[in-house]
Structures are given as structure tokens and as C-alpha cells.
Amino acid sequence: VADVNRDGSLDLVTANSTSQGLSVLLGRGDGTFLATNEEYLGFSSPQWVVAGDFDGDRFPDLAVVDFNSGLRVLMNESGVGCGVTATLVQRFAAGRVGGAVRVTWEVAEGATASAIWVERAEGPSGQAWTQPVMERSIEGRAVVEMDRSALPDRAYRYRLVARDGGILTVLDPGVLVEAQARLAFGLAGVGPSPGSGPLRIAFTLAHNAPIQIDVFDLLGRRVVTLARGPWSAGTQAVGWDGLTRGGMQAPAGIYVVRYAYPGGQERQRIMRLR
């Protein structure tokens, strides 16, 4: 406990053995505290922290006892927490878009960090943080980053980290992106039926694979092939304009859509009107 930024109010500095760092909470003078998002990393297991003006500059310095590395002293040359913007992060969101995870963030004007980046940890608990390779673009004042290495069947937690001088700061504690339900091969929707206009055939692939989609009449004759060859995993769609493979309009009647994929196939009847 000390007035680390010399504003007349007592502040708190805590040793966090779990995150392997120190956290600073600035006192407001009314019994409440402001979390500054400043975190001093580089410790292995900090146990105790003591404040004192060790170099006579009237700023309280910090002596930290680490379980593994022993005593370390952090000299506070300008006041810990000075110039901190309480609403540094104005926006931080993450969600799945297609086969990637889209992360959008925006910081307040006047932020002094020399570098800001996104980190990712696998699982909802947020352990073993790494910095994935992401595609970055700008939309207005917001930064958009696409993580295309995220697997669809795994959950990830994303957080925003900054470097200001030699200090690493976790700007946002993290957003959880849930795993997607694993897709299977199958028809996802065929219609409209009955109908006289174009037919839309939606289908899913559990993984990248060669597939084939055909339309047959009730005598088992192939009317047209709509898709053949390798397709990407996910939900896809093709259309049928009602033409046969000879370029003629197919007559009204009952037809069968067949979706063939590795290890199986699925059929669905449709009714075509004039």
C-alpha cells in the first residue's frame, strides 16, 4: 500500500503468483480503486511486495520477493499508473466468420502503447497464451484481425495485449469463442418444392472431399449433374435452373436429388411444376 502516483490517495500493488506478475490499482480517495490494466510480468512466482522510496526521488519503489528468483527491486521513476486511460479499450469482440475467427478491437485516442496485439489460448480457461499469425485490416478507427488457423471444433479465448516501454499490459482479460458443432455430410435444404423456378440445393461437408450431386427422374435416368469433384468443408450450395444436360427444359414431375460423398449418399425427392 502506497501513493505510487503521488495524487494524494493510497494505491494498491498486488503480487499475483498465478499470472506471474504485479498488478496496480489506483486509489480514488473514497475507498474504491481503479484497475489500471498495468501488469508487470517476468516473475515466476511473486509472493510479497513492499513499497518504499529507495532512491530518494519521492516516488515509492517496489521490492518484490519471488519464490524462485529471490528479491527484485523495481524503481518507480515517474509514478506507476500516471497517465493511465481508464477506458483504454473501447471495443473488443471475437466471433467465427466462415472458417476463421474475426477479432475486432479499438482503443481510446491518446493511447501511448508502442505495440498492441492479439493473443490466443486454447480452451475456455485461457492457459498457454500465444500470438497467432493474423490478417490485419482497418475499418474506421477499429482494427480487424482474422485468425484463419483456428480450428472449427475447438474453443479459444482471445485477449488484447500492449507494450508501453518495457511494460506488458493485458488490456482486455479475454473473449471466449466457442467450438462449432462438428458438421456431417448431408443435404441441408432442397427447395422450393413444389416449385417451377430455380431449385437451391444446400449441402454440408465434414471435411474437404470429392462429392457429386445429380438429379434423376423416377426411371433412374440421370437428368443433369450439378456438382462433381473436390469441395471445401462447411455448408455449400448449388442451383438447378430446370435444364437437362442436353439444354432442354425438364418436364413437370417428380425428380430425385442425389448427393454422393465419401462413404455414403443421400437422396431427396422434389416436385417440379410447369
Automatic annotation (TrEMBL):
Q: From which domain of life does this come?
A: Bacteria
This protein's UniProt keywords: Signal
Q: Which Gene3D superfamilies match?
A: 2.30.30.100, 2.60.40.4070
InterPro entries recorded for this chain? FG-GAP, FlgD/Vpr_Ig-like, Integrin_alpha_N
Q: Which SUPFAM superfamilies match?
A: Integrin alpha N-terminal domain (SSF69318)
Where is each FlgD/Vpr Ig-like domain found?
A: 195-258
The organism of origin for this protein: Eiseniibacteriota bacterium
The identity of this protein, by name, is FlgD/Vpr Ig-like domain-containing protein
